[in-house]
Amino acid sequence: MPELQRLRLDHADALLAFELENRDYFAESIPDRGDAYFAEFGERLRGLIEEQEAGLCHFHVLVNNDGSIAGRINLVDVADGQAELGYRIAKKASGQGVATAAVREICLLAVSYGLRTLIAETTAGNAGSQAVLKKAGFVQTGEKSFDGRPGLMFKREL
């Protein structure tokens, strides 16, 4: 199982490789990040690290034994004891319990960040992500739209 690590600048090359390798796979279930994301990757990563250092977000990567990235799992928009959970797991790591284990681990870690509630969203057609959230103790709280795609909202009290 990959190791959950707090995002650092030295993850940059492996993280970019992960995002590029899985770009089409991710776009099947969530809106694509767009070409600008990749063109400005280093600058964006530095910005994320600054947000993390300010306590606004908590970014993590799932690192394989060989140093490659199997996924990312983030807690963003931290405020008033709540954050939004987001995650992406590599296509070659999907269906192996990696996402479920990572979400469960981040829920435990979130408490150490002073969080009491996590929220998450997924497109309605992403049954795998919905299953992960439910296995990790999230409950569906409503519906929303992602760029015209129907979506679902989830919540977990820690």
Walkthrough of the structure:
The chain has 158 residues and is of the alpha+beta class. It has one domain: Gcn5-related N-acetyltransferase (GNAT) (Aminopeptidase, 3-Layer(aba) Sandwich), CATH 3.40.630. The protein is built from 6 helices and 7 strands; from the N terminus they run βααααβββαβαββ. A 7-stranded mixed beta sheet has the order 1-2-3-4-5-7-6, with helices on both faces. A hairpin with a 2-residue loop joins β3 and β4. α5 crosses α6. The protein is globular and about 35 Å long. The two termini are 24 Å apart.
Outline:
With 158 residues, the chain is of the alpha+beta class. It has 6 helices and 7 strands; from the N terminus they run βααααβββαβαββ. The protein has helices at 12-21, 23-27, 35-39, 41-53, 98-112, 127-135, and strands at 3-6, 58-63, 69-79, 82-89, 117-123, 139-146, 149-157.
